[in-house]
Amino acid sequence: MSKLHEAKHHVNVTVDMDEMDLTSAESKATYEEIKKYVAVHNDGMKVSNLYIAQVQAKYGIIERENYNLPKSEDTKHPQCPKEKEDAIVDALRFFRMI
Predict the structure, then answer these.
(1) pTM given for the model
(2) How far is residue 91's CA from residue 46's CA, in Å, rounded to a whole number?
């Protein structure tokens, strides 16, 4: 490719980007995008980052290892209610993450 001026033959290639698969970066939505989608499609429902992370972990979407683990094993975290989980799952499907 660096010696184009010396090439005797050229090949022209046309690539239609619509036919290509999504890259991993394109298929990821930020927590803010997920929150906005949930709010718009569920009458202003608010979801926390914790709930989004819990649902993502349930479906095997782990971005990175969590180093901020609790010091004791009996620490309680609020669990995501079913209606909010369903709304987050809908958003994850919309963004093609699951």
Answers:
(1) 0.69
(2) 13
Query: Which sign does the torsion angle of CA 51, 53, 54, 56 carry?
Result: positive
Dmax over Cα atoms in the chain, in whole Å? 72
Nearest to 34 by CA among 54, 5, 14: 54
Looking at residue 12, its amino acid is N
Q: Using alpha carbons only, how large is the chain's radius of gyration in Å? A: 21
| Residue 67 pLDDT | 75
pLDDT digits (tens, 9 = 90+) for 44-96: 999 999 999 999 999 998 877 777 777 888 888 889 999 999 999 999 999 99
